[in-house]
Amino acid sequence: MAIRQITDNLVQVTKFGIMNSYLIKEADGMTVIDTGMAGMEKMIIQAAQQQGQAIKRVVLTHAHSDHIGGLDALKSAVPDVEVVVSEQSARFMAGDMSLEPDQAEAPLKGDYPSVKTRATQTVKDGDTIGSLQVVATPGHTPGHIALYDQRDGSLIAGDALQTLGGVAVAGVIRWLFPLPGFATWHKPTAAKSAEKLLALNPKRLAIGHGRVLENPASAMKQAIAQAKK
């Protein structure tokens, strides 16, 4: 496990060198983005303690097990924590795996575990959570969201892209780390979402799998071009 200070407001927690969670400093406490796999909640709590802030809320980019696996344990340790997800991810967490009428009829992929914890708030594209702007980014999963920190241009994009094994849009297989590609619901939708993220002109790209990428525009453009071939 490793804890890395990325900016004054952004902390990365990594397990096994491949799975990331993030903590965002806010005026009212710490926002956790994704709880990672089971067991990562202990390092997340430690990272918050190192920053001198209590954990106020958890925001989940999507409902795959490597992003919500530590949720129940974190909720048990911090009972009053808020849990914020997209409406569709909230349904997935409750066992309703239905797609929206306007979504691609493609099979869901990846592991969607059963969790006891339920969302306390659902969000949609354009909403704000403290300093974070919610960006709907379906593709890897139908209800996937990313979070854009309007203070410093940090983009926490879940599995909309990866940098581990090479920069890639969800659905493109990077054989050094192919799991995000194999677990992607609909690659064409993921490519459109990546274009939406690029349009934000982020200063850094923080993702679920891989290192944080500074000045990511060029790499994102190349990854999008490959995804659209």
Quick overview:
With 229 residues, the protein is α/β, with parallel strands linked by helices. It has helices at 40-51, 65-68, 71-77, 87-93, 179-182, 187-198, 217-227; strands spanning 2-5, 10-15, 19-26, 29-33, 55-59, 82-86, 121-123, 128-129, 132-136, 145-149, 154-156, 161-162, 168-169, 204-206, 213-214.
3D architecture notes:
- By secondary structure, this protein is of the alpha/beta class.
- The chain has a single domain (2-227), classed as 4-Layer Sandwich (Metallo-beta-lactamase, Chain A).
- It is 25% helix and 26% strand.
- The protein has helices spanning 40-51, 65-68, 71-77, 87-93, 179-182, 187-198, 217-227; strands spanning 2-5, 10-15, 19-26, 29-33, 55-59, 82-86, 121-123, 128-129, 132-136, 145-149, 154-156, 161-162, 168-169, 204-206, 213-214.
- The protein has a seven-stranded mixed β-sheet with strand order 1-2-3-4-5-6-7.
- It is globular and about 45 Å long.
Write the topology of this structure:
Blueprint: E1 2-5, E2 10-15, E3 19-26, E4 29-33, H1 40-51, E5 55-59, H2 65-68, H3 71-77, E6 82-86, H4 87-93, E7 121-123, E8 128-129, E9 132-136, E10 145-149, E11 154-156, E12 161-162, E13 168-169, H5 179-182, H6 187-198, E14 204-206, E15 213-214, H7 217-227
Parallel strand pairs: 4-5, 5-6, 6-7, 11-14
Antiparallel strand pairs: 1-2, 2-3, 3-4, 8-9, 9-10, 10-11, 12-13, 14-15
Helix pairs in contact: 6-7
